[in-house]
Design a protein that fits this description.
By secondary structure, the protein is an alpha+beta fold. Helix content is 21%, strand content 29%. It is extended, with a radius of gyration of 31 Å. The termini are far apart. The strands form 2 sheets. A 9-stranded antiparallel β-sheet has the order 4-3-2-1-6-7-8-9-5, covered by helices on one side. Strands 12-11-10-14-15-16-17-13 form an 8-stranded antiparallel β-sheet. It has 2 domains: 132 residues, no CATH class; 141 residues, no CATH class.
Length: 346
């Protein structure tokens, strides 16, 4: 072995020995380091004590966040969202909440430092923190239970509203940061392929009618009698409006009689098998809203009846993008926006 090779071999041996010694020191220091005991007397106990007994008396459940608050309220017709005019909430979410609150138990103790509460989603909402205050009230308005809840990743954490000691919680709760997730918006379900035609009246009062043949794709919509003289400007834009009802996704709801402005536009969709959905659009001070009414020919008009049972008397808030899909100017859909004659509105 050459001198150079021997020196390199000796250097490798020294480095290997140093690495082994360092690893041993780390292992020994870990063995002698005091363990942090996160156990506590509440561990395994229900987070909401006696909730199983008081659950039948619950009349109102309030969620308070730094930037929003919503309230689930028991009414004569079932549980509803107070801030949405009493619009019905999803029964599956309510059942998941009730069973979740009943079975939620304390896990390991976590931080009690006020400056670290937001790191696990438990900052006080009254101080712009990330936590959610969940309160349960009985019919007399008396608070039965109150807990601050928060999420970090896949874990759920809780603490008492008047304490900074936090705990990991075992169990599950439905999403509670967004009240939209509670509203029962399973109102209408129309496949894009089922839509045959639509009639649009825009904010200027002009009307046009568009249709596609049976088996046509999304871009096969074109002007239909008595508007066949109009040429389509953009088939993509036209298909977006034609199929808008298949993407109906409300953000909120309120009573229709609380609308304060007249309708600005009207969009009537018709399916190949005879279902019509008449949508009217409103620009309100508090956002962009629509109303729905379905019509179906024949004695077995069950789909229209099902839609109207959920939609009648209500207005639905849409995002600006979705609202614009229902309310484009006809001049943006056709090349020659001034036909020689137009049929009167139906």
């Amino acid at each position: 072995m050459s001198v150079h090779a021997r020196k390199r071999h000796q250097t490798l041996i020294r480095l290997s020995v140093a690495a082994i010694v360092l690893w041993a020191l780390v292992l020994i220091s870990g063995l002698f380091q005091p363990r942090v005991d996160n156990s506590h007397p509440l561990m395994g106990q229900p987070v909401l004590n006696d909730f199983a007994q008081t659950r039948p008396e619950a009349s109102l459940i309030r969620f308070t966040m730094a930037d929003d608050r919503y309230t689930l309220e028991r009414t004569a017709s079932g549980w509803a969202m107070q801030e949405s005019g009493g619009f019905p909430i999803r029964r599956d979410r309510l059942a998941a909440l009730a069973s979740g609150l009943e079975s939620l138990t304390y896990g390991e103790r976590r931080t009690a430092a006020p400056e670290k509460l937001d790191q696990i989603g438990l900052g006080a909402p009254s101080e712009s923190g990330a936590g959610v205050l969940i309160e349960v009230f009985d019919q007399a308005g008396t608070a039965q239970h109150a807990i601050l809840a928060g999420r970090k990743g896949d874990y759920l954490y809780v603490r008492a509203p008047d304490e900074t000691q936090t705990y990991r919680a075992y169990g599950s709760l439905p999403p509670f940061y967004n009240r939209r997730a509670w509203l029962d918006f399973e109102i209408i379900d129309i496949e894009a392929s089922a839509i045959r035609s639509f009639r649009l009246t825009d904010s200027t009062g002009r009307t046009a009618y568009f249709a596609r043949p049976t088996g046509g794709d999304a871009r096969s919509f074109t002007t239909a009698p008595p508007y066949q003289a109009l040429d389509v400007a953009s088939r993509l834009a036209l298909s977006t409006t034609a199929l808008a009802i298949s993407r109906f996704a409300p953000l909120d709801a309120k009573r229709q009689d609380s609308l304060t402005t007249p309708p600005l536009a009207r969009h009537i969709s018709e399916t190949f098998d005879g279902l019509e959905v008449d949508l009217q659009a409103y620009r309100e001070p508090d956002g962009l809203w629509v109303t729905l009414r379905a019509v179906e020919a024949g004695e077995g008009a069950r789909r229209a009846q099902a839609i109207n049972e959920k939609a009648e008397g209500w207005a639905f808030k849409l995002s600006s993008y979705d609202w614009q899909d229902f309310t484009p100017a006809i001049a943006s859909l056709v090349v020659n926006p001034e036909p020689s004659s137009e049929a009167p509105d139906e």
